[in-house]
Write a structure and sequence with these properties.
Layout (H helix, E strand, L loop, with lengths): L21 H27 L7 H6 L2 H10 L6 E3 L8 E7 L5 E5 L2
Antiparallel strand pairs: 1-2, 2-3
């Protein structure tokens, strides 16, 4: 798997006038990372502690079943996959998704 970095997906630009200054650039990305962590924690807390009558449509949209259904809609059910961490690197196809998001596969014959 190829590694990735959040900074590749941020539209932010370095706050320093000299973007080549490595220390300023690193400090900038540390601040962006902190903000991302705070925002993620806040949003998760809000989602977990929201009351059923508050933002009812939003809660339905973010329920476990709705999230799982949305995730399933992105899957290519006909795609052949390779189990990398098995000795024979078996070829498989998706057959289902469990409630916790793990997939069920069947070996391709």
């Amino acid at each position: 798997r190829q590694a990735t970095c959040f900074s590749q997906y941020c539209n932010a630009t370095a706050s320093s006038a000299d973007a080549n200054d490595e220390d300023d650039n690193e400090e900038y990305w540390v601040e962006v990372s902190k903000k991302l962590a705070v925002d993620t924690a806040y949003d998760l807390h809000s989602w977990l502690h929201s009351k059923p009558d508050e933002h009812l449509s939003s809660i339905d949209e973010h329920s476990g079943g709705a999230i799982l259904d949305k995730w399933k809609s992105f899957l290519d059910w006909d795609m052949e996959l390779v189990l990398r961490d098995t000795p024979k690197r078996e070829r498989v196809r998706l057959t289902g998704v469990m409630a916790d998001g793990r997939v069920i596969v069947k070996e391709v014959e």
